[in-house]
Amino acid sequence: MKDISGTLTLNNGVEMPQFGLGVYKVEKGRQIEDTVKDAINIGYRLIDTAAFYENEEGVGKAIKESGVPREELFITTKVWNTDQGYDQTLTAFDNSLKKMGLDYIDLYLIHWPVKEKYLETWRALEKLYKDGKARAIGVSNFQIHHIKYILENASEKPAVNQVELHPLLSQKELRAFCGEHNIKVQAWSPIARGRVLEDSDIKEIAKRRGKSAAQIILRWHLQNGIMVIPKSVKKDRLRENADIFDFELTEDEMRQMNALNSNQRFGADPDNFDF
């Protein structure tokens, strides 16, 4: 991947940017509008939101005001847990579309695998996909057993699985499983909410490379073939996060970072989540 606009090909042939902006906890109103517009101006083309974030309207407004043609942008949103089930999901999708003022979504995800419901929710996503309302469909926070259940009981396979993933939780087994089934893995919380920035190995690599610790971690994601959506509301940080295409980590540096995994979660565990 040579620059911020580089894409990976999903299992249905759709091209999706490998690098983008996540907007979890970005406040509705001016903050979300300015953040998305700043990101688009810098060159970001993937924007990842969710019904649960309550900022879809601002994302839609920023897209309109950005002056960038809709087809050059890749927009992801997600169905929340309380809206799961077949009919509810179709309604939730229409609500998201309306809030953003869009005709279609590029990628629609199930936010969490709500027991007893996520298969019905997936069937609704399949309909949205077949109807051309979503260019691709996928899941978020799904473990191997959740994905297996979908693969065994559905006609479409997920294009993407978005999960907590960073050097302390490298999700090797899950990544291997998704790789076997041609499902792209995308990292939320790619720098573990800042908790890995103080790691001595990462700091040492950063110093040697003249880069920030965050840039080293984001580069590690890209070289592992992981899609990544770092979040920031600061323009200089948005720019810094995207400035990771002028260097490559060596095999030794990658090995050093791969060795940091301790299966440490900072977000919720999908198998023990209070839905």
Automatic annotation (TrEMBL):
Keyword Magnesium (UniProt): no
Molecular function GO labels: oxidoreductase activity, acting on the CH-OH group of donors, NAD or NADP as acceptor
Pfam family, one: Aldo_ket_red
Domain NADP-dependent oxidoreductase, chain residue ranges per copy: 31-261
Superkingdom of origin: Bacteria
Annotated keywords: NADP, Oxidoreductase
Residues at which substrate binds: 111
Positions of the record's site feature: Lowers pKa of active site Tyr: 78
Active-site residues, record numbering mapped to chain: 53
Keyword NADP: yes
Family recorded in the similarity comment: Belongs to the aldo/keto reductase family.
Protein name listed in UniProt: Oxidoreductase of aldo/keto reductase family, subgroup 1
UniProt lineage: Bacteria, Bacillati, Bacillota, Bacilli, Bacillales
